[in-house]
Structure formats: structure tokens, C-alpha cells
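Pipeline run #58 for the internal structure catalog. This entry was flagged by the ingest filter as a single-chain record with no existing model, so it goes straight to prediction. Upstream metadata was stripped on purpose; only the residue string is passed forward. Reviewer on rotation: M.T. Logging verbosity set to normal.
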Amino acid sequence: MSYKVSRYPVEKLEPNADIQPGFAFKSERFTDISEDIPLVKGENVHQGYIDWRGAKHWPANEYGSFAKYHLMPGDVVLAMDRPWVTAGLKWSYIKPHDPKSLLVQRVARLRAKKKLCQDYLRHVISSNYFANYLKPIVTGVNVPHISGKQIGAFHIPIPEPEIQRKIAAILTAYDDLIETNKRRIALLEKMAEELYREWFVRMRFPGHQHTKCVKGVPEGWEMRQVERAFDFTGGGTPSKNIARYWSEGGVNWFTPSDITGAAGAFLTASAEQCTEEGLARSSARLFPAYSVMMTSRATIGAIGINTTPACTNQGFITCVPNERYTLPYLFHWLKLAKPYFEQLCGGATFPELTKGTFKKLRIPTPPRHVMENFTAVAMPMFGSIESGLSQNSILTRTRDLLLPRLISGKLSVEDLDIQFPPSMREET
């Protein structure tokens, strides 16, 4: 990737940044003890964040012995195996509130040296420029990978340090707004789930004190078979050998990668889109907006909500809400039933929850007034979550449009009086 149009000097990333691969920690010594030190592996690195919940751990009493592989706030991490997935580049950085952690083999840690600002480096690594540099040079058939040498060969514009910090400040202001929205979304998601648990798991719905239970079910409730409760459908794939089924797209066609790589529950678009002809000539079925898509093969129980009419591939069971089984209710029932669905899976090659098994399941069905009251409280939360995700999408697009203009110097910051956001760490 070249920056021929940049007004700033362009140099190789190495030697302007320290590029440190991780250590080959022995998997037989991994622990699941939360008090131990989390390990940052390639599988935990996603697009701008690290999945700490899925991290393996290393004995805490050995942390000091691996100082070379410590991860500190501000450090940029990049997966070296399968660095590019459908959702994007597998990169992230260590945030101030993240736990102290250790770097694992096949993940690179990037730290800026004297001429580079760490915050500026982070934004360049997160950009499409860096991703587009990496994509064509990834090697390996079974396990695509990149090397530290290839990372170091990337050419990066290097303005004066104060200019770097101003550029980083502008972009970080967008990141801070996005993070604020993420925290608000997470709080709303927790509130909505807790409401569902309180009413339909703990059975402390309004009026429960005066409701008798018959065989463990509140009076007036029933356990209705899924096939009699709401509509659901599977998916299909239009032939990949017929170009016109895909060339112009137009119909959102979701795959499990769209769900597992999503920033939130509401999905506005799929990575691939098929044509209406492709849809008509396949086993895929169009379902209405605000249905609940649940993965039913290999990865079981990942869920998402489509905001436009859409279809999926074969790896889904998609459930269509109705007046008796509203979107918030159906979403949380599916989400919390994931462990149960996993127990029901068969399949010789990979786990699968079949539609035949799913339709025979029974779903708790409260009286209409209970469902209506729950939906009246939960739906505004869902609306705020969708709104927050939409705002983040706009903020992300705006930031990504600004970044190349700032890095190239086309948008000058020299004369701007910029207030540095609190989240920007001071360079030392």
C-alpha cells in the first residue's frame, strides 16, 4: 500500500514500531480460573475489541516471569493467523480498564517508538489502508497467516508528533462517542434480559403473588409446542456457480459469520447479497424484518435481528414474532435456551439443531395481558438499542472517511486548536 499522495514522510513501520510476537504457552497448563492471568489468543481478538469472557488463563504466580509478553494499556494487538475474516481485520488494543494479560503465540503486539504516537499508530492499524495492505499478502491455504516481517514492511505516513496527536485526538473523539454508546447499549441489553428473567424465569411477573401454580406452571399459562406458537423457517444458498444470482445483490442473505461478527443484535445488512432470482431459485426463504435469526449448525444459538426483509443460508432457524410471542420475548427465550438447544443437537459431522427437533419443543406461554405488559416495557429498550447501534454505525463511517484525509494531509490539522480527549494517554 502506497501513500504517494501523502504530504507527510512515508516510512516502513519497522523500525518505527516494536513488533513483538507472543509466547507459545503450553495449552495443557491453561486454566479457567478467573483470578489467573487472561491470555490474548488470535481467537479472542475481534474487530476493535478482545473477548475476555472466552479467554484462557495462565497461573497468576508466573506473571512476572513473562515480562516480555505483558500487555499494557495502549498496546495494539493483531492476529497473525487468519488475520482477515468476513467481519474484518482481527485487531484490537488494550484499554485502561482491561485486565493485565499475556500475549500468546501468533498474535503480534505493536508499540510505537520515538517518532510515532501510540494513539496515531492504533488508528492507522485499524484503517482500511492497513487491511487492504494485508489482504493480498496473506499466505497459507489451510491457515492463512502473516509474519512480523510483513507487518513491519507496511509503509506508514509519519507527520510531526504533534500533528500525529492532533489526528489521533480527532479520531479518538469519535471512538469515545462509540464507546459511550456501547456502554449504554450493554446496560439496556442487561436491563431487558433481567426483566425477562424476573418475569419468565423466576416467575415474579406482576400479580404472581395471587397466581396459583399447577404442576410448576402458573395458572392461566401453558407450555405450547413451537410449531403451534409462531412461524419459523430454515435457509438455503443460491448457486454460487451462477453469477447473476449474486452479481447485483439486493437481498440480504445472512450467514453465521454475519451474526458472530456483528457489533450488536440488530443487523442492517449482510456481507453478501443475492438477487431476487437467486432467492426464488433456491431453498432460501424471505422472512420479514425484525425476525430472530438463530444459528443452528456448528455454532448453536448465536442470534441476531434483521432490520429489513432477508434470508439466510442453511445454518439457521429463523423465528417470526407475532402478537402472542413478541420480539423481546422470543429473542430472550431463544437466547437463554442456548445451553438446552446444544444438548439436543445431533449430527455426525457437526452439531445441528434440526427444524424437526425444534418444532416439537415447548415454549412457556403467559396470558395475553402479561405478554402485552412485558412488551410495553421491553420494546422501548429494544428501540433504544437499535438506535444506539445505528448511531455507532454512522460515527464509524464518518471516522473511517476522515482517517485517510487526515493521514494523507489533505485535511490539515496544523492550525486547529484541538482539545485532547481524556481517554488519550499521554506519550512518554
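catalog note: The chain has a mean pLDDT of 92.
catalog note: DSSP finds eleven helices and 24 strands in the chain.
status: ready for reviewer M.T.
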